[in-house]
Design a protein that fits this description.
436 residues; alpha/beta; inorganic pyrophosphatase (n-terminal core); Diaminopimelate Epimerase, Chain A, domain 1; 3 domains; six-stranded mixed sheet; 17 helices; 47% helix
Length: 436
């Protein structure tokens, strides 16, 4: 089935390769600021460097009308080839309106389900009946183009994007194909391990600042240190052996029987950042802090960027734990919501999403920006946050994304009206599936 889908996409992938090779001017790459977007940017930068193309990359938080208008002015002067990664399918009408010569490499639901639109080629899994929320990421879509050039090593960056977009448990569809291809070429090794061994720091710090799983009772350095001492494990060890892992797991589960996700399949990748989970979190942290060039540098294995990324990650994780402790969840009938800080609301919402989806928001000037998160159980019950958040248009804003994770922007004086409407829509989604 997967190979059949790849075959269907082949015509589009080959056309994109030819479009890149035949373009004689410079190339403008526009990508998203999250882990998947930065991984996508890393793949495209390496691919364009190897093909000796002149290019300029920009990382943005949203492909807003303002961003498109700026690019349109650039288009009038220089006529570049635009490559939009992890965005573009939802804004394709604006891109067409401005007569861009463009390639769109996206995995969000497209507004137009066609691959060839004049000077635009769109590679989007949804056009081929593939779910971009769980079967392939944007970095995976970028990798499909890179592998057409023979750059199979760039699969490791697609794996980082898979982790960043929470599409690794379980691996499905093209995600599974990409990981298996990376294993075949020996670019990745998979080992089952405790989550705390990922971070390459003292064990008490790894436990104190871990958010997947988040254990409030151990979410401080002193408490985690004391806990490890009590069970006979050296808190300063950076890596636990098999017997210590078993001791730690049994001790945590004895005290906190509802905790899960204590073990993971670690992806050990051919990269200076050896662990794909660690790299995913580093990219998320630098992206959320606006250090986009550092994120691309990490993908390119720049030592200085990697060191900066590690430092930023731990500052980010400390701030995140403090923010988690201070979050005040409010409740409507079908959702929980909170006001938080920029760069943290999405991850906090994903940590707290359980029986109900969680929506976080922060205010910037006259607008409010929202991040909504659910989980697979809620999606299986009918949740589609992409549809729910798209209702922002009714309030003079914009919204969309995936069924399990989505975002929106509305005027700040419409916050409660918007949340109440989203609550209604989600209630309808969950109840309609229940009544089927």
């Amino acid at each position: 089935m997967v190979m059949e889908k790849l075959k269907e996409m082949e015509e589009v992938v080959k056309a994109i390769k030819e479009k890149i090779l035949n373009h004689n001017g410079y190339i403008r790459v526009i990508t998203h600021h999250d882990t998947d977007g930065l991984s996508s940017g890393g793949i495209l930068v390496k691919m364009l460097l190897r093909t000796n193309k002149l290019f300029h990359l920009t990382v943005v938080e949203h492909l807003s009308k303002e961003v498109i208008e700026k690019l349109a002015k650039e288009n009038e002067v220089n006529k570049p080839l635009f490559i939009f990664a992890d965005m573009g399918s939802g804004q394709i009408e604006e891109i067409m309106k401005n007569n861009f010569n463009a390639i769109i490499l996206d995995h969000h639901p497209p507004k137009i389900k066609e691959s060839f639109l004049g000077d635009i080629i769109q590679l989007n899994p949804h056009i081929f009946g593939i779910d971009g929320a769980k079967e392939i990421t944007a970095s995976g879509v970028c990798y499909l183009v890179a592998r057409e050039f023979g750059y199979y090593d760039l699969s490791v960056l697609a794996i980082v994007g898979i982790i960043g977009d929470m599409q690794y448990s379980p691996l499905l569809g093209l995600n599974k194909f990409i990981v298996n291809e990376a294993r075949e070429y020996r670019f990745v090794k998979i080992v089952n391990d405790i989550v705390y061994n990922i971070y390459d720091v003292e064990m008490y710090k790894a436990i104190a600042y871990c958010t997947k799983p988040y254990i409030p009772d151990l979410a401080s350095e002193s408490k985690a240190f004391k806990f490890l001492k009590e069970i006979g494990i050296d808190p300063n060890k950076k890596y636990l052996d098999e017997s210590e892992r078993k001791k730690l797991l049994s001790s945590i589960l004895f005290r906190y029987p509802k905790i899960d996700n204590l073990t993971v399949n670690r992806f050990i990748i051919e990269h200076k950042v050896k662990d794909a989970f660690l790299m995913s979190e580093m990219l998320n942290a630098v992206g959320r802090n606006g250090l986009f060039a550092v994120g691309i540098g990490i993908c390119l294995e720049d030592e200085e960027c990697i060191n900066i990324g590690k430092n930023i990650l731990w500052k980010y994780k400390k701030n995140l734990i403090n923010e988690l402790k201070s979050v005040k969840l409010e409740s409507l009938k079908n959702i929980l919501y909170f006001e938080g800080k920029k760069g943290m609301i999405g991850i906090i919402a994903s940590i707290l999403a359980d029986e109900k989806p969680v929506i976080g928001y922060h205010i910037e000037g006259d607008i409010a920006k929202f991040s909504a998160r659910g989980n697979r159980d809620l999606v299986n019950r009918g949740l589609n946050l992409s549809v729910a958040m798209a209702v922002a248009e009714e309030f003079g804003g914009t919204g969309g994304g995936h069924n399990v994770a989505s975002g929106a922007v509305v005027p700040k004086d419409k916050i409660m009206d918007f949340l109440k409407r989203v609550d209604e829509i989600i209630g309808e989604q969950l109840n309609s599936k229940k009544n089927q």
